[in-house]
Structures are given as structure tokens and as C-alpha cells.
């Protein structure tokens, strides 16, 4: 009888004991995996920085947003965009590609007819001012900042100097990075100098040409397919 | 159906060609979709029969091409485990990591009629996923830049020589702070399984992109 009682007491004590607490193993996630222990390789050089600040600073950012490909449902817009991109491709090609090759390949004796903006130097002068008149032109024709336009310098603009002299001074200015985004072409058969540049720098470049080279009369800004859009 | 080893028909090279071509398209598209570069530098092209955005900026294109040219030998020898496109904020801390995990079978069971067209279909699906991934990702802070990381199956220093293919394009071992991301959100995008390569693409996204990562 007493044994039974002892058993009951023992059982009761056991029942009243705290449940053993199982220590949970530390959770080790599968991620990151063991392979991540090795640090990866990466190129030492950083990728190029292509700033979009001209679009943002200009106050025409909404117009810039028009060229955003995320608006995929508008067919007309797509066409505009494609045209714009083509222009950009051509301009980049002019700056970095064909222009440079031609620049190198021209023999010394041959009269140079192309000049390409060098990216080696920083632009120190202020280039971002626009007149109200030029703003209106940009709005009227829906021009994009990266769209290429061309200033045409005629022989009459150069008087009393010769157009060859103006060309050599222009070539020097472009090579010394004083005319951003510019590449120029001397159309000797037409006796004209064509100065290509981005719309963003157009007005600055127009003033630079007029003032530094003491051009007389009006110089004309032409845009592909639109023709003459502005005179200075 | 034929069973080939990796040495037969120089299959490693074929796989590397296919993958590097795909990665080039994918990197361009990621940079466009995640707005690392201004949209003005991108142009619409067609690849794998779907529209993609490719940069037309020569310096950027050259950079991507050089990077992949160096990665190719590692993929060819099945030594690259992951290729990661890391988007970093102004302080060079990662905000997003597009991880391409690559696995190649040691034995290649191929049938010529299904091989390339099937792979192309699968790669197309991955590209389509990248093109819509902005819907599941938060906006990145302004001024982001990118880098490409290559995780090797063995220690990176062992593979350093293999990756130094171009003289003027040196490679280094990445810093830990460029690699580690605290409490990332994992967003699986796509997996693909073909006869020649298996790949899974996922994004690791920093929880609070606007704030500095406490690494």
C-alpha cells in the first residue's frame, strides 16, 4: 500500500515538474550560400558617368520626360523618340566614331575639313544660359536637348577675314574643348562652315562664334528636316 | 539524343558565347529599366524577337563589352558561378543586385533540333522579366552607378589571371562593403533550365533605399 502511495507521489512530482526546455539550434539560413564566402571579382575601372543634369537643371524636364520610353502606349511619341534616338546616335557617332577616325586619317598636307570636340578638357565657361527667344524656339519645334543642330557660317559673315582663317581659329577652339559637343565641317565647295552641336549648347555656341570670331551679319541655326529655325 | 562531355565540340565556348551575348543585352536593359543612365542614351532594338533597350553611348558600350569579354573565359571553363549586376548609390553601397546564377551540366544531352531555339525561348523569357521588373522594385535614389561582379567557384584570387584578358581593363577583388547588403529583400525573377545551361535570376533589394545601409 505504501509502495503504491510512493509511486503516486513520485508520479505527481514528475507531473508537476517543469517541462524541459529544448534549446533550439541557431537558425542558419541557406542564404547567403557558402560560395559567397569568396569575394567576387570586379573591374577596377568604374563605368562612365553620363549625367542627365542638363535635362533636370533646365526647367524643361517635363519636356525631357516626353522622351522616356516608359510611355510605350503612344505610337506617335514612339516615332518622335525613334527619330530623336537616331539623331543622338548620329551625333555620338560624329563625336566619338567617324569624326575621330577621319581626324586621324587626314594627311598633314591635306587641308583639314573636319574638327571634333575633344573630351579631354573640362568646360570652364558658363554654357547653360538661354534667351527667352531661344526657349520659344525649342518649345515651338519640340526640340530635344541632345538633338543636333547646325550653325552655318557663310563667307559674308567672315568679312573682312577669310573663311579659311575663321576655320583655322574654329578648329583650334574645338580642339581645345571651348565648344562643347561641337564638331565642325568646312564645306569648301559651298564656302560654308557647318558647326554641329547639341541643342543644349546651341545658343552659347552661337554667341561664342559671333563674339570670338567677330562674325558680321546673322548666322543661321538649322535643324535636320526643320530647316532654318533661328538666327543670331 | 547525344551525350557529350564539355570538351566535345568545344561546348564551353558555345555556352559562353550564348551567355555573354545574353548578359550584354540583360545589362543594357537593367541599366535602362533601373534608370542608372538617362533614357536618352538608349535605343530600341530587337533581340530574341522582343524589343530591348540598348545604350548607344560608345564609352558605356565599350565598358560592358570589355567586362563581358573578360568574364567569358570563366564561363567557358564553367568557373563562374554568378554574374551580378550591382546598382550602387552615391556612397557606393549596393541598393540592388541582379544575380545571374549559372550552372552548367558536366554532361550535355543535346538534340540539335531543340537546342538553340529552345535556349532562345528561355532567354527571351528572362529578358521579358527584366523589362518588367521595375513593377516589383522600389525606385532607386538619384545618382546611382553600377558595377559587375563575378563570383567564381574557387577563390577569386585563383581566377584573377584568367579574367585579365584585356590589358587596359584590370580586375580587382571587390570590397566587402560593395558586396554585402544588410537584410536584402529577395525577389526571384526567372529560372531557366536547358540542355546546356541552367540559370536563375533574382534581385536582392536593399530594404530602405533612401537611407544609408548600416553595414
TrEMBL record, chain A:
CDD domains: RBD_SHLD3_N (cd22293)
GO biological process: one example: positive regulation of double-strand break repair via nonhomologous end joining
Record protein name field: Uncharacterized protein
The species this protein was found in: Electrophorus electricus (Electric eel)
From TrEMBL, chain B:
Taxonomic superkingdom: Eukaryota
Keyword DNA damage part of the UniProt annotation: yes
SUPFAM superfamilies: The spindle assembly checkpoint protein mad2
Transmembrane segments: none
GO CC annotation: nucleus; zeta DNA polymerase complex
Localization, UniProt: Nucleus
UniProt keyword Hydrolase present: no
Keywords: DNA damage, Nucleus
One family name in Pfam for this protein: HORMA
Coiled-coil region(s): none
Residue ranges constituting the HORMA domain according to the UniProt record: 13-203
One BP annotation, GO: DNA damage response
Xref: Gene3D superfamilies: HORMA domain (3.30.900.10)
Protein name (Swiss-Prot/TrEMBL): Mitotic spindle assembly checkpoint protein MAD2B
Organism, scientific name: Electrophorus electricus
